[in-house]
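Re: weekly structure request thread

Next one in the queue (313 aa):
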Amino acid sequence: MLKPRISIIGSGNVGMRYAYSLMLANLARSIVILDIDKKRTEGEAMDLASCMPFVSPVDIAVGDYPDLRGSDIIVITAGVKQKPGQSRFELAKQNVEIYKDIIPKVIAYAKDAIFLIVTNPVDVLSYAAYKISQKPWQEVMGSGTVLDSARLKLLLSRHCNIDARNVHAYVLGEHGDSEFPVWSRAMIGGILFKDYCPMCNKCNVKTFLPDMFSEVRNFAYKVIERKGETSYGIGLALNRITSAIIKDENSILPVSSLVDNYYDVDDVYMSIPAVVNKKGVRELLRPKLEPEEIDNLKKSAKLIKEVIRSSGL
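Done, posted below.
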């Protein structure tokens, strides 16, 4: 299998953690990095190049939009960060304007690449990339709640003293405050969580589950409060999505995708379990949700749509 050419637009902490993980995982033959701060990006590329004696060969280059030619995957992390006191509406509008500049340039040189969107608010920006690019929706996805779901698995695994890889649980909806856990479908070792809990009998489920998910939802805020940003987790989450695409895995991941006719939710990007392969999103799965979970899905979709409308899309 010929390893792909992956281009990263944005050389901030997230983009560089992702590039580093690509090197360690031996997933790319070529990595192109673009950023308006070319001097800093050159420094990042030089630093990464010093890793070469320890990893499989990979070409790392600092480029411009014409250098995107031949890219198999375009990962976009570029955008402004949310400032203290800035609303999601203001942030979305600002980043949508940036995408109106970026996406046409990407299309000019790499229209056939799979787009993986990371910029926040990621559901709104994924929708923006889809609309602006006019690509098939299957070829435009956001990082969604892949990391949020991983954090849920982590905390469940710690509580139950079970390897996190044997915990299967999803956070769906918006990557943000309206996201929600699908407790009804969560499983540990093939046992539904609702059946596992009485066997474990370690906690009061009625109080424990809401408290745990509150911790999941606030996880990033706590990290940011302590170190100013989050990047390791999302770097590996992007690596996981990339692997599913490159290796044509047909892996099920809660990426942000275009949702239509899904529990009466239409025309919005949000996280739903999706089959991901070399063509992007093959299909969305439709797990049976409880009435409360359906309500949460609809509320989340409504909030995302409000932000999309306010951003001028």
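The chain has two domains: 5-142, 146-310. The domain at 146-310 is CATH 3.90.110.10 (L-2-Hydroxyisocaproate Dehydrogenase; Chain A, domain 2).
Next request, please.
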